Amino acid sequence: MNNLKLAAARLNLLRSVIDVNGVRFGEDFVVIAGPCSVETETQTIETAIAVKKAGAKMLRGGAFKPRTSPYAFQGLGLKGLKILDKAKKETGLPIVTEVVDTRDVSWVGEYADVLQIGARNMQNFSLLREVGKSGKPILLKRGMYSTIEEWLNCAEYILAEGNPNVILCERGIRTFETYTRNTLDLSMIPAVHTESHLPILVDPSHGTGIRSMIEPMSLAALVAGADGLEIEVHIDPPSALSDKDQQLTPGQFTLLMKKLAMLREFMADLGPKAVASIEGNTSAQPSGKTFSEAVD
Ligand code: PEP
Ligand code: MN
Q: Which fold has domain 18-249?
């Protein structure tokens, strides 16, 4: 990828760690969770309390919703940001929320700990420059029609403004397949790790659009090396004003978080020690736990 200067993998292979209020992307496996849209104070705060209890490290929620139809719910705007602020005060969870307009970057940035650039705005170059200038941590989603090269060049726009705090998020691309909302391209995880030093999250909610597929795709993303997940959770998905078919209930999210924790423990045994033991180096054994001990 010829044009990359700042986003390209470093010669020393060191990966970036982006610190947001002590949450360390690229070092910890970070799960961001929360509703697609901020709808009411009760819906947002109850969801925030539930996802925090289950182990999420950040709260997501859209106050500005880029919807396919201009007549669909567009988000609560400033009122939504104020609700997110209350949820943050209640739970301590930092806030991830989308900004869609260059004119809104500075004041949305007063409420957001991480500014999200949505798939539809991935190549909005003036918006990328503006969030670059803000210096805020940015979650840059992959455009639904974009190649990895185009995506990393968009990260480059933000980095070139002197903002090193860029986190990537794979959220699926348009293909000929119509069964799922998008085709979740998990192969981008190792690809981004090869081409860039930036952390990469996976959004299995928009990536599939199907509630029952969130869990298997989340577990697969962890195994494939993702640095975290962004997952939509709603206290009552059937009543959601947007994306009701892809939001988990708090119960489903809690179960998923438990499975992710078990899988991480199991995977810890698959590192260099496992390789050494497979190659016959008996002085470097894995923990010795069986799979069922590791997940108990
Ligand atoms: C979102 O995360 O709220 C969203 C709209 O996702 P995307 O931009 O990936 O469609
Ligand atoms: Mn959504």
A: TIM Barrel (3.20.20)
